Every structure is written in C-alpha cells, then in structure tokens.
Predict the 3D structure of the following.
Amino acid sequence: MARKQVTLTRSDVDAGTPLLAVEDLRTHFLTEGGTVRAVDGVSFTLERGRTLGVVGESGSGKTILSRSIMGLLPARNVVRTGSAKYEGTEVAGQSHAAMRGLWGTEMAMVFQDPMTSLNPVMKVGNQITESLRHHLDMDKGEARETAIALLRSVGIPEPAQRVKEYPHQLSGGMRQRVMIAIALACGPRLLFADEPTTALDVTVQAQILDLLSAQQTERHMAMVLITHDLGVVAGRADDIAVMYAGKIIEKAPTRVLFSSTRHPYTEALLKSIPKLEHTSHTRLDVIPGRPPDLVSPPDGCNFSPRCPYAQPKCFVEEPVLEVGPGGGHEFACHYPVGTPEGAEALARNEAASRAGVSGGVA
Amino acid sequence: MPEPLPDTHDTLKAGGSGGVITESSAEVSIDALTAGSTDAQRDVKKLGFGFWLAVGWLGLLISLAVLAPVLPFVDDPNLSQADALEAPPSGEHWFGGDDIGRDVFARVIWGARVSLFIGVAAVAFGFVIGGTLGLTAGYFSGRYERIVIGAMDIMLAFPALVLALALVTFLSEPGTQNATLGTVTLVLTILAVPALARITRAATLTFAQREFVTASRALGARNSRIISREILPNVMPPMAAFALIAIAIVIVAEGALSFLGLSVASPTATWGNLIEQGRNSLDDTPWISLFPCAVMFMTLLSFNYVGDQLRRYFDVKELNV
Amino acid sequence: MRYIGQKAVQLLVVLFLVTFLTYLLLDLLPGGPEIAALGPGATEEQIAAFRAETNLDDPLLVRYGKWVSDAVTGDLGDSFIRNTPVNELLGQRLVATLQLMLYTTIFSLAVAVPLGILSAYKADSWFDKSSNTIAFGLLSVPNFILAVLLIFLFGGQGLLDWFPAATYVPFSEDPYEHFHHMVLPVLALAAGQIAVYMRLLRTDMISTLQEDFIGVARAKGMPTRRILLRHALRPSSFSLLTVAAINVGALIGGTIVVERIFAIAGLGSLIVEAIFQRDYFVVQGAIVVIAVGFVLVNFLVDVLYAVLDPRIRHARAIA
C-alpha cells in the first residue's frame, strides 16, 4: 500500500515554524462520576532536534497529553479543545482516519511496558516490516533488510536471527529496543517516549536512554520524554516541563530548572530524591497529601492544599503560567521559591505551624 | 469496558440441544461465572423489563403446570373429543386439536409438567451430588481434587446425547423403548453431575483463596465450619443463577430424548413427543407441532434469560467485594 | 515436536480408556445382547449356546482384549440384527454424517467469525446489541425445534418449498442436489453453533482489543482492517478453537436428531436404531468410531494451538 497522503492541508512551513506548537490543549473525559479534566490547558513549543522532558506523578496528565497530541484517544466521551500544530498543521481534534497518515511516519510513540506492547503471536521482524511495507511501500526483501539494520542500530545482537523470533524469546531490555526500532522505522520527526524505562531494570535504563539520545541526534528528531523520575530527564532533556493535575506549573531549560527552581512542587520533587550523601535511615522528604480530584479540582491553585508556601491568595486565585524575569523560565506561582515573597510566605507558615495554628498548610 | 472472559452460558450451550451439558476444558470459560465480567459495570445493574417479563412467563407456566389437574379450562390431555379432531385453534380449543381429537393446549400444559419436573429434579439432584463434589474438590484440592476432576472430564469428554440414549435404553425393560419418569430423571442427573461439579469447583476456587477464608482458618475454624459459613453462602447465588440455565439445558435434553421416543411412554404428553407427532402433518395441521414449539421456546428463552441476568447481577456484587 | 509426541501418547491413552469404559458400561447394564438377538422367547439352551458362541461367559478383560485385537485389524464383530459386519455398516453410514458435520462447522465458523469481529469492533452499537439478541434467541432454540420450523417455513410443508426436507443425495450422484438437500439440515445444526461461536469470539476480541499491543499497532498507523484481522484475531481465537473441539461431541448428538428428522442415513440414525434394537456390537462399534473421531479432533486442535501460539511451542521445547 502506498504511503498514505497526509489528508491534512499543510501550510507553507517556514524556518520559524516550530515542529510542534501546542496551545491551551485540554482533554476532558466524560465519565459517570463527572468530567475528568485530565489535561487542562497545556501550551508549549518544541523545535526539531530538541528534547522536552515532561515530568509529573501518576495522574498529572502527562500520558494523556502525549496521547492527545498524537490523537490516540478513544473516540467517544472525550472532549478536546485547544490547538496542537505539527509543522504548522492543526492536528488536535482530527479523526483517527486523518491521523493515520501521520502515525509512524511523522510522529511515533515508544510505550511504557515492553512486556505487553508487542504482539505475542507475531514475529518480531514482522512487527517492524509491516510498518515499512505499509507506509514506505517496500517489498518483502527490502523491508526485511531494513528491519535487520534497524535492529542492529538499536543495539540488538544477531539481528538476522532475531527477526525470526517471537517477543517472549527476548528479554525486557531487548523488547524495549525492538519497540524503539518499531517507532523509528519510518523515520518520524517527533518521538514521544512515554516512561520508556519505568518497566526496566536500573542497569538497562541507562542503556535505553542513551540509545534514545543517540538515535535522536542521528535522525535530528524532536523528542518528548515523559517520566515521573527527575533523574531520567536530568541529563537528557533540553527543557523540562513539570505537570501537576493536568497543567504545566513550571517550564524551563534543564539547568535553570535545577538551579533556580521556582515552583514549590518542583522543589518538593527535587527534595524527595534520595541522595548518595544521605546517611542511612535519613528520612525522605515526602510531599504530604494526595493529588487532587480531577473532576472537581480545588479553587485557586491546584497544589495549594499541599504547598508549604501557600497563602490565602493561593486558595482563591489560580496562578497563571508566566515567564519570569530573565525570560525562558515559566512558572505558575504567587509566592515562588527563591523570591522574597516566597521566602516570606514560607517563614510565615513555618512560624504559624510552630505556634500550633493552622495557617493554610494542609 | 472489556468482558474479559467468555460467557459460561455459551460454553454450556455449545451444540444446542445435541449436547446435554458441554463445557470447555479451558478453565477460563467456567471461571467466567464468578470472575466477574466487567461489562456488568456498564450494563443495567437493575433487573430490567425483559427480566420481569421472563419471570412472568415462567410463573404463569409453572402455575398452569402445577395446577393443571384442577384447572377447569385445562382438558384431560388423553381424552379424544370429537369436536377437536384436527381442529384449528378456536375459542373452545385454544391450541387446536390433534389427529385423534385431543386438546393440544391441555397436552402442552401437561407436557410442561413433565419437562419442568425432570428439569428441576435432575438439576436439584445433580447439584446435590455434583455440587458437593465440586465444592469439596475446590476446597481441599490436592490429589482428591485431581481424581474428581479427572473423572468428571472423562464423563464430559463423551457426546452427551449418545450416552443418554444408551443409558436410557439399557436401563429400561428389555424389549420396550419407553422409560419411566424416574429412569429419565436418573439418566439426566448422571449427565448433569460432571458439569455442575466443575462449575461449583470453579466458583469455590475463587473464594477458597480469598483472605476471609484464610482469616477464618487462622482463627482456628474447622473446615466444615469454613465451608458452611464462608464458602457456601458465597457460592450459592451464582450457582442459583446457573441452576436456571442448567434447567433449560436439561429440558432441551429431555425434549430431544422424547422427540426420539425415548422418554416417558407415549400416551403421556411431553413436549418432545408432541412436536414429533405433529411434524409429519405440518402442511395440514401445523398447530399440533407449532404451539408446543412456541411454548417450549418461550420457556427456554425465559430460563436462559433470567439465569443470565441473575448471573450478571451477582457478578456485580462480587466486584464490589 | 516433543509436544506433538506427548499429545499422541495422551491420545492413545484416552482411546483405551474410552473404549474400555464403553465396553464395561454396556456389559454392566441389564438387558444383554442375548435377549435382543434371540428374542424374549429364547430358551435356556439357546441362550447358553449363544453365550458360548460369543464368549460372553469369559472374564471381562479377556473379552475386552480380544475385542481390541480384533478392532485393531478392523474387525468389529457382526451385527446380530442385520447379519452384516459392523465395520461395513459403519462405513456405509459414516460419509453422510461426516459431510453433515463438516459443512455445519465450516458454515458456522464462516458466519460467526465475521459477525464476532464486527460486533467486537462495534461493541455496544445497535448492530452489536441486535446481533447479541438474535444470538441469545438462537441459543435457546433446540435444534429439533429449529428443524421443524425450517421444514415448515422452507421445506414444502407449510409456507415455502425451497429446499427438500428429506433424504440424502450422495455428492457423487448429483452435486447440486447433494447440497440442495443439505441446506436445511445444516442450518438446523449450525444456528446454535453460530450463536455460541459469535459470542465467544466477540468477548475474546473485545478483551484483546484492550491490550497494549493493539494500541501500539494503531500508533504505527496500521489500518483498522489489518489490526482486526492480523493483530487481534489470532490471539482471540484460542477459546474459539477449544470450544469448537468440544463441540464436536455436541454436534454428534445434534446429528442424531437431525438425521432422524431429515431421514438421512448416517451414523447418527444408525446409532439410534442400533440402540433401540439392542444391537450390541453395532452400538459398541459406533461408539468407538465416535470416540476415535472425537479424540482425533481434540488432538488436531492441540496441534493447531502449537501452530497458532508460538509461546506454547517454545514452552514445551524448553520444558
């Protein structure tokens, strides 16, 4: 079957158009219990060849975000608003049929669990070649050769042997490499890596992440690296967006995020990472409380019930994601970390809790 | 919402009336009974209009069948009446008359007595025997379980109708082809036992491994107590739902047997032999066959539907546990 | 290959068990062959002579052993009633029944599989709901009732006269008439099966379609048809296969009734007649044939599993 014509009209792509431009994207699920606001107003841009890390805990909406952009949502009971432009063309709200032309060829996704992401009754090779033959119109022999080359490029030893094997004959790490090969097969320009290493051994994690980086550089791809683990994105993302309850609450180039954290949530995340310098039995700093109910989120800032900096204003007025002074660093907070207002707010709360009076901290 | 496991009902119905009770050797199908099909979550949790309609039909039929001897509008099924001779349905004879003048409606009602009796009796006895076997097998497991299940599997492996035919014939008086009510019930009970045992075992297994059983044991409760207090009350509801479906299957089996002339002796009306009687005169007097067909179909449909709905209803509750 | 070897051994064991049990059962039941063969008025001497002739006084195992050794060479004894060798009788009748069963299975699967896939894909649509309702209705109709209805509606005994309602025409004699005569019997048998298979496949497909690898296939841009047929169907077909294999047994029961109604001279009607007539060896022979067939089918299905699911193949090889 010939490569599907992209049925979306593509406006002239000029040099300034980012590869991906998302604006106020919202995805709400209509359920019996109410409307779940899984993604609630996300905006960002991504240039070709750059990596964006999206960090958040479960329920923050990071996975739904990637699915929304790609259009892999169920057809019913989903409300999508906002815009997502891929190379200038609107993709948000398109039907599956329209998107099929982009899936695999322009945008691809690496899924989380390599154990369940491969078809158990289909040979590994076939799972790669079917993409090649469908999208790129290769014949059988050519596709097979390409598949072998792909497997080799993702670091699988004896690729010619592996193409004939079934997924259950491969280890978890190897299966994930196969998944990556499948995703990259048709040369997409945008790759979503959704928790690609969560289901793997720590030792294998680094290898997979290195592989992704190497492929990205080689193919000049843009990558969105989704994870709950700040350590994963630390060395590998150009920019990091931190998500909480369906919104981005802080976004900055990686170095800046780590060195001048502004949002209390991000700060808490950083603090909760165990460090080598800690002596044994050091108590980990955890974030008290639980993520908010996405059906009826709290008034004001979503994080306020759990925030050590929270002030009365936070419970009433929702902070807007704004670029701070100095540019390039966006955050949504009334009393940001590292600012005089923030320090004051924290001091006030700590004094109040010492005095035994609840001052806005949950 | 996925229905993760096949409907037990289907596996049991495999082959329609040819099989008495057939069952997949894949545990999966049996376990569906209690594993909880999650499509129950999106289905109507309440028992709807269709359910009550089916219950109504069954109630009506059972009342008519039980009260038949005293109901004024139910004629003597063996009495030939001149005005009913090959008569089409009329105000006098609601389902018409057969080739020797017997009132078809009355024969259908009296046939219901036979079918319902055999259905209920065979399933009841089958549950007592098979249920006990299954319950104990599921609870005690080990070698005992393996032997029981092995025996049940062998019995299930054989085409049921053939076995039923052979048993009925050989258990009857040599030279005759007619069985007594008791013989037919016995044979169908024997055939019902293996499937009922397996179903009960599957249901027991899902409970025997749950925490409240372990907790009971830890408190020192004896096995008999655990079985009667913890397991039995939980196994009963899905089994009750299942019993209805089993009754439908047994009625079909009895129908097939009597269609072949192997059930209760001929002057007695049974649905199967009514249908058989009338099938050669379909062009002239279709009502002789068709009314019994219709009544039997409605009854089977009702049993199946009610059983199926109840099964889902109980599954939902289990999900909440 | 070891897997197949294991299965072959199991096959033989089951065969022995089933035939022995049948032998035992027939032996234990009252109403022995001598009465049937000689009639109720047989004298003591006649009975004794008969028993001596047919070795009925030998111990069970000896008789069974002899029977097995005969059976393996194809000698299943002679019919008392018809005075012909059993294997001849069986041979004559087998073809019709096999054809009936084969056509029914093919037809049911041909109808049920597409319907099942479509229902699963369009779960909860009006199409799905209505086909489910129809399936439920079909499940509740015993095949003899369906047969009578079909004859009434289409078999020239009531409304329409499209299909013959009786007898069997061998394929070699007249292919068109052969199939023409088979239509109603096959429909009567297939209806219930279609319902079962369709619902089973639908359930399996719905759960398979929820699996991760289906989402991955979609994200690769694969067209829906390919996903349904190439990715989802294979893993979903296992339950279907199991039930189809078990169904062969039920199908045999069904053919007994259907052959009777449509006057087809097949194995089913032979069994009924033989059982009525207490024709001992015929019944035994017929049951053996059924057992062999049944076990063979199950064996084939097991092999088919290995073909369809590579995990099974490799698990055995490693084990």
Notes: DSSP finds eleven helices and twelve strands in chain A. The CA atoms of residues 49 and 217 of chain A lie 7 Å apart.
